[in-house]
Every structure is written in structure tokens, then in C-alpha cells.
Amino acid sequence: MMTQTIKKPSEIRRNLMLSDMDIRTDDQGRRRIFSMKFVSQAGKLYFIPQAYSCGAGKMNMKKWAVRGVQPCDCKGNPEGHPYPVSIDTILEYKGMKVIL
Q: Which residues of 71-94 are buried (b: 16+ CB within 10 A; e: fewer)?
């Protein structure tokens, strides 16, 4: 008998990541929580182990290629403030390397 293992993908295309981020809630109406690693405009590397997608203030997210990311605790309660993240500076999403 052969055992078949399914490997988790190690990379995700940016357009698929953005589509996944745009889905804000699951079937039960709960926020979809993910982890993310990105570089800020100041050049700092941020790793947020638990976050959910939110608005980016008064910015036009499509025009400026920005997404809002809100850090949260394990129950989905917000912690700190939302970060406006440029889609070009996202390095990892859900533990997968983001590629073009």
C-alpha cells in the first residue's frame, strides 16, 4: 500500500493572493485570518502572524495598489492599528512566497 502525501504549495502568484485577500469573510461570516510578511515604506520588515483584510483609510485601494491589513489576536479581535500595505512589498502570504 502506497502512502500519498500532499505537499503544501510554497509559492503563490500575486494576483491569486490579492483575490484571496479580497474575500474578507468565510461561509459562517467570520473574518478570514492569515499571516503576512511585508516591507514598509520606511524599509522595515514586518511579520504579522495573525491579521485580517480591512480598508486602507480613505485611499483608493485599486488605484494606489494598496491593501489594508489589521493585526488581530487568535479570536479575531483587532490589536494595534491597520497597516496600509503596498502590494509590491508583500513578501509572504499564509507562509507562501509571493511571486509575480
A: bbeeeeeeeeebbbbebebbebbe
The answer to pTM > 0.70 is: yes
Indicate which CATH number applies to the domain containing 63: 2.30.30
Q: Does 72 reside within a domain?
A: yes
Q: What's the pLDDT tens digit per position in 52-100? A: 998 877 777 778 889 999 999 988 899 999 988 999 999 999 999 999 8
Give CA–CA dist 91/57, Å, rounded: 22
| Residue at 91 is within a domain | yes
